[in-house]
Write a structure and sequence with these properties.
seven-stranded mixed beta sheet, mainly beta, four-stranded antiparallel beta sheet
């Protein structure tokens, strides 16, 4: 065995490691003035025309921000990468060479777009419309110059000639014209678990359509373990942010050398498992998925915020543009949506105690009802024994009502609709409270206990359960139930019509109001040959207007615990994800994804947000907390771009001679067969020959680190090393670098900065060091000195 191969087995390549700061605060380094003026403290910043990276490096001062620079000039790109690497931020901040006519980004993506050296970029073909296309709604696109060489009058003339009349001149960090991108009118939000306080579960987002792209992907990526404790519990979205509840151990995965937490489960008497593990509230940027903040729930909040399988109507998470309402430390509170800091404490949360109920000789866990609702600056906190209404700004309690046993509550038409003791519908004016506006006794209809309410267009639908359905956690077959839809006038409570929905396909009461009809899910009769169907009812008379059955063998509808969701155009199919048109019943499937078993997904901001799932019933699906978008003709299509190796900057480089040995280890697992072995003697006695530090990058914020550590590849900091010609080659994943070290001393010989993240080891062949990169290129470097080799050479 030769000396080089022996060193492969004994050398230790030590990296700085991406250590997590103990706090959850922004970077201490002062952000450049342009970030302060744009009010950007986290998220994604795109720097167009970044030049040699002076301003790009300054933007990296905030460790919560990811920055990407684009520059047409190849020589400037190389200088920018060297500057960023020397500052210890390359990786979190990256620079690519690109044509700027069509930006390589999806619509509505960046929290700030900086257009530097505006006259040069406009001359190169960049348009203001293209910049605004990639800017997230409600965020800033900054046009100007960081060098101070652009006069204000010239900048104003350029903006006006581009058709932009509304902008603000900012004379900080250069000369800039700030343009705030408005939110498109065809996008909706998803402020409550069931979309809105009326529990319609129907998004008004007409910007969304059948899936054609994965917009972003975040963690955690559950591996399909089947553990019920790993579900996401609720998700909402407002103000360009998304919020969801997860088990705490899944949000900040343990770092290297840390012991993973042990999950503990409590078995109920019927054998159903529930999870007492801690949970947390996670905020993400709704446009690009980057984490914003995390807030831990207390042990007293677990039963409330974790929506167990049988807690159908509970909702402890509501979002607005500026506030998030939830239960925290046993109190109903408002948090700042941007930071997660406490803004207002309203009242103690209603007391919750788990209990076991027995029905038809079967026991099941049941959680007392609790819900938070928001409408018109009013906060409604509803529990079993008390319903309270607060003024959001002052926190003052406006009025209360003490029901016998509240089991449902919704808001609609400036009124509060309460279901008391599973039979009494009691309606209050949201502002006045006091004496009920009207009330109705559902027991007079003799069709079972009232279970659920929903309201739309002055139509209140009270769902009574005439025959309980079967809900099975094992085979998910369910079905067999019967419900009655009782439609009342919302202003006076008069009964308008009733409809019996028989042979439900599950125990879930799936009712939607979309495309001008009230839809109920049931099993179709002989015409539908027993397939699941949607029956569309006239909202005025209750007569059947349309029936849609699912084509072929595909099943529609909610899974074992989540409710169905829809838009005015489509019903969202569950397994796999599909979109069935209300108009003609045609379905478009997206087989790469499925909805979760117990938590509703949401349609907002022109995107479909799919919660992480752990189920094994549909294994070939994309894992993680994902956002999917429809096709859009305005987004750039894939184009062939010129290889960086064809540019004059490397035209004189040829690979230097590089002698190798048959006993080298020149690629992953040693050879093309990936055998992981070689014909050489080895004594088995290993000692440390040397140790060298290869990564001096400054660690980003803990939330960005956890995003990397939560990947399926488990957050590798470096690739496996390979050895050839007396050198040890290794890729440093998140700092986008390939490094060669002397195999005898460990001293670095050369370093090359690539255009993106690495996750596979280099391959040494024919005097070349070949490495693939996430920027879409395979780099051919001279193995002896790391110089980029022209193509072809």
């Amino acid at each position: 065995m030769n000396k080089v191969t022996a060193l492969l087995l004994t050398a230790v390549l030590a990296l700085a490691g991406l250590s997590v700061r103990a706090d959850n605060q922004p970077a201490t380094t002062e952000s450049p003035e342009i970030l302060q003026e744009a009010k950007v403290t986290d998220g994604l910043v795109i720097h167009l025309g970044c030049g040699d990276g002076v301003l790009t490096a300054e933007l990296a001062g905030n460790d919560r921000i990811i920055v990407q620079g684009l520059e047409e000039d190849v020589a400037a790109v190389e200088k920018a990468r060297q500057r960023l690497s020397a500052c210890g931020v390359y990786g979190r901040v990256s620079v690519e060479q690109s044509n700027l006519v069509k930006l390589p980004y999806a619509n509505h993506l960046a929290d700030l777009v900086i257009v530097d050296d505006l006259p040069r970029l406009l001359a190169a073909g960049l348009t203001v419309d293209e910049v605004l296309r990639v800017t997230a709604p409600g965020h800033i696109a900054a046009f100007g110059s960081s060098t101070g060489g652009l006069a204000e009058n010239h900048l104003r003339a350029l903006m006006l000639s581009a058709g932009i009349k509304e902008f603000t001149i900012i004379k900080k960090s250069g000369m800039w014209a700030f343009v705030c991108k408005p939110r498109p009118a065809d996008m909706d939000e998803w402020t409550h678990r069931f979309h809105d306080p009326s529990m319609t579960l129907v998004s008004q987002d007409s910007a969304f359509g059948p899936i054609e792209n994965l917009r972003w992907q975040g963690g955690p990526r559950f591996n399909g373990t089947g553990a019920f404790g790993c579900y996401a519990d609720c998700c909402v979205s407002a103000g360009g942010r998304s919020f969801f509840v997860l088990p705490k151990h899944d949000v900040l995965p343990p770092l290297r050398n840390e012991t993973p937490p042990v999950l503990t489960f409590t078995a109920l008497s019927d054998g159903v498992l529930t999870q007492p593990c801690p949970r947390c509230l996670v905020a993400r940027d709704a446009w690009n998925g980057l984490p914003l903040w995390v807030c831990d729930y207390g042990t007293e909040d677990i039963n409330a915020v974790g929506s167990p399988m049988f807690c159908d109507l509970n909702c402890l998470l509501v979002a607005t543009e500026k506030l998030v309402f939830t239960q925290l430390k046993g109190r109903v509170v408002a948090l700042d949506a941007a930071t997660g800091k406490l803004v207002k404490d309203y009242c103690p949360a209603p007391e919750l105690k788990r209990r076991i109920v027995v029905q038809d000789n079967a026991s099941a866990p049941e959680l007392p009802f609790i819900k938070i609702l928001y409408c018109q600056n009013r906060l409604v906190v509803a529990g079993e024994k008390i319903v309270s209404v607060f003024d959001v700004g002052s926190g003052k309690e406006l009025w209360t009502f003490h029901p016998v046993n509240c089991t449902a509550a919704i808001l609609g038409g400036n009124r509060v609709f309460i279901l008391d003791n599973k039979k009494d519908i009691i309606v209050f004016d949201l502002e006045a409270g006091g004496t009920p506006a009207w009330q109705q006794d559902a027991s007079q209809w003799n069709n079972g206990p009232a279970k659920r309410l929903f309201f739309k267009n002055n139509l209140l639908v009270v769902i009574t359960e005439k025959k309980p359905g079967i809900r099975c956690l094992v085979n998910l077959s369910g079905g067999g139930g019967e419900i009655v839809l009782n439609a009342l006038k919302g202003d006076d409570g008069k009964l308008r019509w009733q409809y019996l929905a028989a042979a439900l396909r599950s125990g879930r009461h799936n009712i939607l109001y979309a495309d001008g009809l009230v839809w109920v899910s049931e099993m179709a009769g002989d015409a539908g040959k027993g397939r699941p169907s949607w029956t569309g009812l006239d909202p005025d008379s209750g007569t059947v207007k349309k029936q849609l059955t699912t084509p072929g063998s595909q099943a529609t509808g909610a899974t074992c615990s989540a409710f169905d969701i829809a838009t005015e155009r489509f019903f969202l199919n569950a397994r796999p994800v599909g979109f069935q048109s209300w108009e003609d019943g045609k379905i478009i499937l997206f087989c790469e994804q499925r909805t979760t078993c117990r938590t509703e997904d949401m349609i907002a901001n022109g995107l479909l947000y799919v919660n992480p799932n752990i189920c094994l019933c549909v294994t070939p699906c994309i894992r993680g907390f994902d956002a999917y978008g429809p096709g859009n003709i305005n987004e750039p299509q894939p184009e062939l771009v010129e290889s960086p190796a064809r540019h004059p900057i490397s035209a004189t480089v040829v690979p230097a001679p590089f002698a190798t040995s048959a006993l080298d280890w020149p690629m992953f697992r040693g050879d093309p067969r990936r055998s992981g072995s070689m014909a050489a003697a080895f004594s088995g006695n290993c000692t440390r020959s040397w140790e060298t530090r290869l990564n001096d990058a400054k660690p980003p914020h803990a939330l960005l680190i956890s995003e990397w550590n939560g990947r399926m590849s488990q957050g590798d900091l470096m690739t496996s090393p390979v050895v050839a010609g007396g050198l040890v080659f290794v890729g440093i994943c998140e700092t986008h670098a390939v490094v060669a070290c002397d195999a005898t001393t460990g001293k670095p010989v050369w370093r090359f900065n690539t255009g993106g993240r690495l996750d596979t080891p280099p391959t040494i062949c024919d005097n070349m060091c070949l490495v693939g990169c996430y920027d879409g290129w395979v780099y051919g470097l001279s193995a002896a000195d790391g110089a980029l080799v022209p193509q072809p050479y």
